[in-house]
Write a structure and sequence with these properties.
Blueprint lengths: L4 E9 L2 E9 L9 E7 L4 H8 L10 E2 L3 E9 L9 E5 L14 E4 L5 E2 L6 H23 L11
Antiparallel strand pairs: 1-2, 1-4, 3-5, 3-7, 5-6, 6-8
Length: 155
C-alpha cells in the first residue's frame, strides 16, 4: 500500500472554497473498512459545483472531490471484499460527507462498494459512471411502474 499519494482536496479557507492537489496518507481519509487503489473516477457537474464552491455540495471540509470511483481492493476488514477485487462506488456520500474518488487511494465502507460486473473492467465501469447509472436506474424504475414499456416490448 502507498504511504503517500495524491488527491484533489477541497477545503474551505476564510469562507472561500479552495481546491488543489495534495499529498495525503490513508490516515488523512474518511473512516471506512475497505481501502481501494483508485484507477478511475468520472467527471460530473456536481464535482465542478463542489470544487468551485458554486454549489454547497460538501457538508464538511476538507474532502477529496469525485462522486464515484472504480479500482482494486488493497485491504479489507469485510469478508465480502478481498484484496485484488475490482470494485466501484457511485454516490454513497462520496465528496459530500466522505472522501471521494479524485485520489489515488480511497477508504470506504464496504456497504457502498459494488463488485464491477463480470466482463467489465474499472475503466468501463467509470465510462458509464454515476450519470449513466442514474439514468439506467430511472428507466428501470419507470418500467417497473408502467410509465414506459419494458425494453422487450414493441412500441
Amino acid at each position: 500500500m502507498m504511504d503517500k499519494f495524491r488527491a484533489y482536496r477541497i477545503d474551505e479557507r476564510d469562507g472561500n472554497v479552495v481546491a488543489d492537489f495534495r499529498e495525503l496518507s490513508i490516515d488523512d481519509l474518511s473512516p471506512g473498512n475497505v481501502v481501494v487503489k483508485v484507477a478511475y473516477s468520472s467527471i460530473n457537474y456536481k464535482d465542478a459545483l463542489a470544487a468551485t464552491g458554486a454549489g454547497r455540495i460538501l457538508r464538511s471540509y476538507p474532502l477529496n472531490g469525485g462522486i464515484d470511483l472504480a479500482g482494486t481492493v488493497v485491504s479489507s476488514e469485510d469478508v465480502d471484499f478481498q484484496p485484488g477485487d475490482t470494485v466501484l462506488v457511485n454516490g454513497c456520500g462520496l465528496s459530500e460527507t466522505v472522501d471521494g474518488g479524485y485520489s489515488e487511494m480511497a477508504r470506504v465502507d464496504a456497504g457502498s462498494l459494488v463488485p464491477v460486473p463480470e466482463g467489465m473492467d474499472a475503466l468501463q465501469a467509470m465510462q458509464i459512471g454515476t450519470a449513466g447509472s442514474t439514468a439506467m436506474l430511472c428507466v428501470l424504475e419507470l418500467e417497473e411502474h408502467g410509465v414506459v414499456p419494458d425494453r422487450g416490448e414493441v412500441l
